[in-house]
Amino acid sequence: MADRRTVTVGRHAVVLIDSVTQVIADDAGAIVVTGSHGGASAAGYALSVDAALYVFNDAGIGRDEAGVAGLAMLDEAGIAACAVGHMSARIGEAADTLERGTISRANGLAAAAGFLPGTALRQAIAGFAA
Q1: Closest Cα partner for 14 from 110, 111, 130, 116?
Q2: What is the distance, to the nearest Å, from the Cα of residue 82 to the centroid of all Cα atoms in its chain?
Q3: What is the 8-class DSSP label of residue 77?
Q4: What's the order of all strands across the beta sheet hosting 31-37?
Q5: H or E element, residue 80
Q6: What is the mean pLDDT of residues 12-19?
Q7: Are the beta carbons of 79 and 51 closer than 8 angstroms?
Q8: Mean pLDDT of the chain
Q9: What does DSSP say about strands 80-84 and 53-57: parallel, antiparallel, or unpaired?
Q10: What is the DSSP letter of 11?
């Protein structure tokens, strides 16, 4: 089973799950950092739990932006979400996403909250006002 743990970044509890399939009801309202791609299938799992923010890997973006297609789906549902670049963090490893990830894409809600492309994920979370 993939690793699951909670760490503190600034004043925020951050749930680290290597796969978004591990998201549970107790994660509602939390910052959830995954190792998963940010595609539509990943968003389907994320839509089941209303987190404060989801973080994914952009998986190289891909054809028709498939690696981040879920960000828009989450935005429409009122959930902030962003993705880190696949060259900045290992796909499938939430801890590496948090420690080394650099944001490459963000939906409107995440961008409005300061999760902007080019920003180190850890830095963005530490400055998150929610």
Answers
A1: 130
A2: 5
A3: T
A4: 4-9, 12-17, 31-37, 53-57, 80-84, 103-106
A5: strand 80-84
A6: 95
A7: yes
A8: 94
A9: parallel
A10: T
**What does the block give as tokens for 84?**
């880190």
Q: Quote the radius of gyration of the chain (alpha carbons, Å).
A: 12
CB crowding 48-67: b at 16 or more within 10 Å, else e: ebebbbbbbbbbebeeeebb
Q: CA dist 14 to 41, 51, 94, Å? A: 22, 11, 10
CA angle 66/21/53 to nearest 5° reads 70
DSSP state for residue 12 in the 8-state scheme: E
d(CA 117, CA 20): 22
| Confidence band of 128 (pLDDT split at 50, 70, 90) | confident
Torsion of CA 40, 124, 130, 50, to 10 degrees: 20
Report pTM.
0.94
Dist. CA 105–CA 102, nearest whole Å: 9
| DSSP collapsed to 3 states, 21-63 | HHCCHHHCCCEEEEEEECCHHHHHHHCCCCCCEEEEECCCCCH
